[in-house]
Design brief:
flat; 69% helix; MetI-like fold; 295 residues; mainly alpha; 11 helices
């Protein structure tokens, strides 16, 4: 008796994004960090609707401790600062301002850095060496110290702080992009495409860029946390956002003098910065592990 042939349905091959997402969500710590980061982003987006008061409005003679204190009031969830401004409203609007500033910084740094990285990777002329030496000079100094020096030279203020932090982040994108492209150019499939007659533009857009994109995405995530920290540091030193802007570093700068009599005024913005940076770094590490970028 001749047996009938058996047919098997081929299972669908998941895409790279689907595999990365599944591996990322398998890590409970990074998943919790991603949820926390999403909440912070939502708070920043909907800050005008979440904050009960204008962050710069002063309630005269209303220096009130947080709600959990015996003298707290439910109208002021986290209390007020030394000028009678609602601290909860200032922290919520501070999330909006800090994330917006970090986004601008990372956009400027990544755009310039990736462009220069592509130039240095695809060019074997003297331009390559000049750009690399400039990047090495910038990396030779601590990033925060260099940002302080730049702001001191061009003057304090929010726009200048953005430029300073963007400048210190550019070399990271330049070197990362250059090394990633050089690594791809050394692979055999690139040689095969060149022998097949592929042009440089098609080779870069169809082969190199998709393969280095995961590395660049992880670097963007980690640069975002660096931008938040350094903008907050410049604000704390009085070189970045100026009062009454509710930037987290500026709030810390205004409150640290009252740390002994009103510790919540310093602790709460510090915790906001800490948990934001922690969630971003954990998400970045989780993305690197999910994409196997270390292998």
């Amino acid at each position: 008796m001749i047996s009938r042939p058996q047919f098997y349905q081929q299972s669908e091959i998941p895409s790279s994004i689907a595999r990365w997402t599944k591996k990322f969500l398998a890590n409970k710590l990074t998943t919790a960090a991603a949820i926390l980061l999403l909440l912070i982003v939502l708070v920043a987006i909907f800050a005008p609707w979440i904050a009960p008061y204008d962050p710069a409005f002063q309630f005269a003679d209303q220096k009130i401790p947080p709600l959990w204190s015996s003298d707290g009031m439910k109208q002021y969830l986290l209390g007020t600062d030394d000028l009678g401004r609602d601290l909860f409203s200032r922290l919520v609007h501070g999330a909006r301002l800090s994330l917006k500033l970090a986004f601008i910084v990372v956009f400027l740094a990544s755009t310039i850095g990736m462009l220069l990285g592509c130039i240095t990777a695809l060019s074997n002329t003297w331009i390559d060496q000049i750009i690399l030496r400039i990047m090495d000079l910038i990396l030779a100094l601590p990033s925060l110290l260099l940002a302080i020096v730049i702001v001191a030279l061009i003057g304090p203020g929010l726009p200048n702080a953005i430029y300073a932090v963007a400048i210190v982040l550019v070399p990271h994108f330049v070197l990362l992009t250059r090394n990633a492209i050089k690594q791809e150019l050394s692979k055999e499939y690139i040689t095969a495409m060149l022998l097949d007659g592929a042009g440089r533009v098609k080779l870069f857009t169809h082969s190199i860029l998709p393969n280095i994109a995961p590395t660049l995405v992880v670097q963007l995530t980690l640069a975002f946390s660096t931008a938040i920290l350094e903008i907050a540091a410049l604000g704390f030193l009085g070189l970045g956002a100026q009062a009454p802007n509710p930037e987290w570093g500026t709030i810390l700068s205004e409150s640290y003098a009252y740390i002994t009599i009103a510790p919540w005024m310093v602790t709460l913005p510090g915790l906001a910065i800490f948990f934001t940076l922690l969630s971003i770094n954990l998400v970045g590490d989780g993305m690197r592990d999910a994409m196997d970028l270390d292998n």
